[in-house]
Each structure stands twice: as C-alpha cells, then as structure tokens.
Amino acid sequence: MRLIDYVHQGGTIMYILVLLNIIGMTIILWKIFSLYSSKKNVLKIADEISNRFKNKIESKSLGEELQHTLAKEEVVFEINQLETGLNTVKIIASIAPLLGLLGTVTGILGAFDVISKNGLSDPSLFAGGISMALITTVGGLIVAIPHFIGHNYLVRALDKLEVRLENLVISKVF
What we know:
Number of strands: 0
Oligomer: single chain
Mean pLDDT: 88
Helix content: over 70%
C-alpha cells in the first residue's frame, strides 16, 4: 500500500496531520538555516548588538550592573527574533497525538456503528473503522515525534547561541 493510500484511508484527520507536518517541517528547516547563519555570523551579530547598546547608553551615566542587564536585554531581543515560529512547532508537536487520538475514537465509533447495524457476522464491514483508528494514531505519532525533537534541538541551540552572544557582547562593551 502506498503512503497516499494510508492518508486517504485515515480520512480528514490524516489530511490535517499531513498539512501540519508540512507547516512544521518547513518552520524547522527555516529555523535550522537561520540558526546556522547566525552561528556563522556570531561575531558580526555581537558587533551590531554592541554598537546598538553603546548608542543607547552613550549619553547616560549608568552603573555597571545596570549596563550588564541592558546588554543582556539586547541579546535577548536578538534571540527572540530567532525564536519566531518555534511556538508553532511546539503546538504541532503537542496537538498531533491528540488529533491521532481523535481519529482513533472516530474510527472505533464508526466500527461500533457498523457492528450495531450489521452484527458481527462479517468482520470486513467494521475493519475499515478499526483501520482508520490505527492509521490516525500512527499518523499523529509520526508527526509529533520529529516536531518534539526539532523543537527541543532548536531551543537548546538557541540557548547556547544566547550564552555565546552574551559573553561576546559583554567582552566587547566592558
């Protein structure tokens, strides 16, 4: 059986899962390339942040502790821009198993409906509902697992980048 046959057999919920998978994987790939570019240009980004920071505090006389805090806030602002879209990946990872479960319940309901109308004399009549239940469960997990992994990887990589940027900015400013 081809993959598209499984998707068709899973019904509307599988089409939703496929759409969510396309959206989520697109975001993950976009974030991986953005992160790679940022890591590659980390010194340039640190220089830009340092210059922005120096321009902001140039005319003000602030204590060193407050300057450190403001410098860290500049780095956090930069990292927040890189985090755009990660919440969507997290949401997809969270709801995909629930959608699979919804398909499971819908398929089982359909199977019981067939059983109540036709009895258990012909198992092939209710096999379609059971099949839909299993396919959507698997589909939900197949979508969720890589999204959880991608989200966790990207969050960890952004945390490391944030620490590195903070260290570089603070060393350039102070």
